[in-house]
Write a structure and sequence with these properties.
Blueprint (H helix, E strand, L loop, with lengths): L6 H29 L5 H29 L3 E5 L10 E5 L5 H10 L6 E3 L1 E2 L8 H7 L4 E2 L4 H6 L6 H11 L7 E5 L7 H6 L12 H11 L5 E8 L7 H5 L5 E10 L11 H27 L4
Parallel strand pairs: 1-8, 2-6, 2-7, 3-6, 4-5
Antiparallel strand pairs: 7-8
């Protein structure tokens, strides 16, 4: 609609509207989070529906801002049979902060509100960190091998923390989101870890295994999402200022095999689970090559 404006103007106005929209919805979200504190399960579940309504409305207005100031050709396939009444485990490749806006655009009103696993430190991000907490985003602190070697008594706390975080997701439909690479793709990171994939970093299978172990019986389907930017990976500023002209997204809906639920500390299970994840990543890498080359519809 306002695509004729210069990119810096579009970006500045868009950013201002994103900030205003975030602050506007942060107020009821934080107030509802306080109201939700009494430990009455039915009451908390009902308030969670209101919180998710606020979050969905926030995303809807962000999407409206995007449609007004940008002209993106959205090429999305695989979401026709999704339902807001189902439980999903969502995983995707990670290239940019724009990925989050893309996922919210794709799944808004198509699947339950996305809940991302976040690093514990992100709770301190002004305003939005508290909103993530209020919306029951799980904050994780993964332990390194060195930490476990120094304090063996901490073994198993990762899965306990994941199970506790996922406990809140049992009572209403949810989409639990996980970026398996654990960080955004850059060529430097790719080369440093000697990734065997062309367009992807090595996947970290442990996190998704912990989620399946914690609430696998409550998750009905796996959504394998592939995000492609044919003209190159954009920055957040590129996106909001209208410099992104095409985004391709493919969603595969897969069943969750009960064999994928098990003890990740067991060497045989870990090997089998990692093989499954690596095959998903090989398929995704091939798909990205085809999407970038325009060989697959």
């Amino acid at each position: 609609m306002l695509h004729f404006l210069p990119a810096p103007v579009r970006g500045s106005i868009s950013f201002l509207l994103y900030v205003i929209n975030t602050i506007f919805w942060a107020v009821p979200i934080l107030l509802l989070a306080i109201v939700k504190l009494p430990p009455i399960k039915t009451w908390q579940t009902w308030i969670t529906y209101l919180l998710d309504f606020c979050a969905t409305s926030w995303i809807t207005l962000n999407n409206l801002t995007s449609s007004v100031f940008t002209r993106v050709r959205w090429d999305i396939k695989g979401i026709d049979n999704l339902s807001v009444k189902d439980w999903y485990l969502v995983m995707a490749n990670h290239q940019s902060w724009v990925d989050i806006l893309v996922l919210q655009k794709v799944f808004n009103h198509k699947a339950p509100f996305l809940k991302f696993f976040l690093k514990k430190e992100l709770i301190y991000v002004p305003v939005i960190g508290l909103c993530w907490w209020a919306l029951d985003f799980p904050f994780m602190q993964r332990l390194t091998a060195k930490q476990l070697a120094e304090k063996p008594e901490l073994k198993g706390t990762d899965i306990a923390t994941t199970r506790k975080a996922c406990e809140k997701f049992r009572y209403k439909p949810v989409s639990v989101m996980n970026f398996l690479e654990g960080t955004r793709f850059t060529q430097l990171k790719h080369d440093k870890q000697q990734s065997p994939f062309t367009h992807l970093l090595k996947p970290k299978a442990g996190g998704i295994s912990f989620v399946l172990n914690a609430m696998g019986e409550h998750l009905h389907k796996l959504l394998d999402v592939t995000i492609c930017y044919p003209k190159g990976i954009p920055t957040f500023w590129d996106y909001i200022s209208g410099k992104v002209h095409e985004v391709k997204v493919r969603v595969r809906v897969l069943p969750i095999d009960p064999k994928l639920i098990g003890d990740y500390d067991d060497p045989l299970f870990r090997q089998r689970f990692q093989s499954w994840v690596n095959q998903l990543w090989l398929d995704k890498d091939l798909l990205l090559t085809e999407l970038k080359q325009g060989e697959r519809n």
